[in-house]
Amino acid sequence: MRHNRTPPLKVVVRQGLDIVRGMAYLHSMGFIHRDLKSDNLLIAAEKVIKIADFGVARIEVQTEGMTPEIGTYRWMAPRVVKFSL
Asked: Per the database record, which ranges form the Protein kinase domain (predicted)?
């Protein structure tokens, strides 16, 4: 049975930092995830967050010619949605 309890602030902050550090690492390696959302975040051992689903990820070679409309609209930044309309 799943309990809907709010996790402690310390856990939430640590998990947020896991996401930020993971994305920073991806970007430092030249990757763009393009579909980061809660469905693509996995909780591993010790409640560590792992980023998953790189199906639409791109290697950041250039910004021209990349299609911004890849991803989940509900989770896109407003500037990306505006650009793709």
From this structure: 1-85
Report which of residues 69 and 78 the model is more confident about: 78
Q: How far is it, in rounded angstroms, from Cα 64 to Cα 85?
A: 17
13, exposed or middle or buried, with CB in 10 Å at 0-12, 13-18, 19+? exposed
How confident is the model over 17-73, as pLDDT tens digits? 999 999 899 888 888 877 788 888 899 988 899 988 876 666 665 555 555 556 565
- All domains in the chain, ordered by first residue: 9-84 (1.10.510.10)
H or E stretch covering 82: helix 78-84
Q: How far, in Å, CA of 50 to CA of 41, rounded?
A: 6
35 is catalytic: yes
The residue annotated as part of the active site, out of 18, 35, 39, 53, is 35
